[in-house]
Design goal:
The protein is α+β, with helices and mostly antiparallel strands. It has 3 domains: 13-94, Double Stranded RNA Binding Domain (2-Layer Sandwich); 113-208, DNA polymerase, domain 1, CATH 1.10.150; 223-418, hpI Integrase, Chain A (Orthogonal Bundle), CATH 1.10.443.10. It is 46% helix and 9% strand. The protein is built from 15 helices and 8 strands. The strands form 2 sheets. It has a 5-stranded mixed β-sheet with strand order 1-2-3-4-5, covered by helices on one side. A 3-stranded antiparallel β-sheet has the order 6-7-8. Helix 4 packs antiparallel against helix 5 (130-151). The longest helix is centred in the middle third of the chain and has 38 residues, at 161-198. The termini are far apart. The model is unreliable at 1-8 and 423-439 (pLDDT under 50).
Length: 439
């Protein structure tokens, strides 16, 4: 059967000339007219009337279609000469199609990394949910902080493993093991993405650079440090900072989730915070109890801001969620004399305090918004009443070492003078046994 002809179809061929090509009429589907003089030279006629010259040959057992241009921009004689020239390449064992693809891939591999990053970012944001958008926002920060200045103007295919290794070593000393790992992962992701875009086997120099070993943090506040922390929180210069850090400490929420808290998610009567699944790390809706101190701070803020029905609880100036917490948090921690203390350490501190107060580990996991995927976790559920009681115990355990009690927060955030003299448990490590929130 002639090449390029479907089973049951008769091949249409003849000597291709300008007059013949001009006379080829479009049909309901695409069809071929083959040149009877040079093997593999043909015209494909589209239903739109477009006529395109092709050279069709087999290479390594696969049929390849090499476009030679469309008529009348490319005349028949010129297309024939191109077909004969390209056909000679096949005779030498080469493939013009693969050579053309390789040339395009090489050209696209030489673009700047900044352009590849823009394409990578756009692809990541296409049809992205809120969780993916948060991840991309972190990648944007990582790109601007650790990658743009060093590699932004470099060609994608010019990076070497030795160069990336030196950069990674320096960044580890500057940003820490975890920060360097995240920057390395982003650089590797951009390079792998672009290799897929250009359909080329581009080397990824990051694959030869071993990431740093990451160990889980164990930092939490002792009873004495809790007193220093609360003293600094209550004395912070900005009201927004005082309230935000107080709620962060009392709820054990992730700082990103707290910054995106909305008024319509809070139930004053039910004393609960209903967090949509798109704001949760696990992607599932979560209902967390609001203990009395946290509820008092939030309600006072709600009344002070005009009792809004919706909107973000801690907005930035443009009305969007507050974008950054690290700077005011670090300033407050420094004022308290606390070294190496991060927003996420508040969760560890709260969980440790709750455990010392006798709260069951499964209930603590619920308060932290963790999903128990074990068989037991599928059947054992934490009731709202149990979670609420545990949250109150946790709040009391966080306040009593600082000389504070939950009742101090009923009308909102107390003044720094509300702290009693040295709490009895100030020197106890890690926490005193706490069973309630009384005076």
């Amino acid at each position: 059967m002639p090449r390029g002809v479907k089973a049951g179809c008769k091949r249409e061929e003849g000597l291709l000339t300008e007059e013949v090509v001009e006379g080829l009429r479009p049909r309901s589907g695409r069809w071929w007219f083959w040149d009877s003089k040079y093997p593999g030279f043909a015209v494909r006629v589209h239903p739109s009337g477009v006529r395109t010259f092709y050279l069709i040959r087999k290479h390594d057992g696969k049929t390849e279609h090499l476009s030679l241009g469309s008529w009348p921009a490319v005349k028949c004689d010129k297309a024939r000469k191109q077909a004969e020239a390209k056909g000679g390449k096949y005779g030498e064992g080469g493939s013009p199609v693969q050579a053309k693809r390789a040339a395009k891939a090489k050209a696209r591999a030489q673009v700047k990394l900044s352009e590849a990053w823009e394409r990578y970012q756009a692809a990541r944001l296409a049809h992205a949910d809120d969780r993916r958008k948060r991840a991309v926002r972190f990648e944007v920060w990582t790109w601007g902080k650790h990658l743009e200045e060093t590699f932004g103007s470099r060609a994608v295919d010019s990076l070497t493993r030795a160069e990336v290794a030196r950069w990674f070593l320096g960044l580890t000393a500057k940003a820490g093991p975890v920060g360097a790992n995240r920057a390395r992962a982003l650089l590797s992701g951009i390079l792998s993405f672009w290799a897929g875009q250009v359909e080329a086997d581009l080397p990824n120099p990051c694959r030869g650079v071993k990431p740093n070993r990451e160990t889980g943090r164990e930092r939490y506040l002792s009873a004495g440090e809790l007193r220093a922390w609360w003293a600094a929180v209550l004395a912070a210069p900005a009201q927004d900072t005082r309230e935000l850090l107080a709620v962060l400490s009392l709820t054990a929420a992730r700082q990103g989730t707290l910054r995106a808290m909305c008024w319509e998610e809070l139930g004053w009567q039910g004393k609960a915070w209903r967090i949509p699944g798109e704001k949760m790390k696990a992607g599932r809706e979560c209902v967390l109890p609001l203990n009395a101190p946290a509820l008092g701070v939030l309600r006072a803020r709600w009344e002070r801001t005009g009792k809004p029905r919706s909107g973000y609880v801690f907005p930035s100036r443009d009305g969007q969620p507050r974008r950054e917490l690290r700077e005011p948090f670090t300033d407050t921690a420094t004022s308290a004399g606390l070294a190496d203390f991060t927003p996420h350490d508040c969760r560890r501190t709260a969980a440790t305090a709750a455990a010392d107060a006798g709260v069951d580990s499964a209930v603590i996991a619920h308060l932290l918004g963790h999903v128990d995927k074990s068989v037991l976790g599928r059947y054992r559920k934490v009731t709202p009443a149990t979670a609420a009681a545990a949250s109150e115990k946790m709040a009391a355990a966080l306040l009593l070492p600082a000389g504070l009690v939950p009742a101090d927060f009923v009308a909102g955030l107390p003044k720094s003078g509300a702290m009693r003299p040295e709490a009895e448990a100030a020197g106890v490590l890690p926490f005193p046994g706490v069973t309630g929130g009384g005076q």
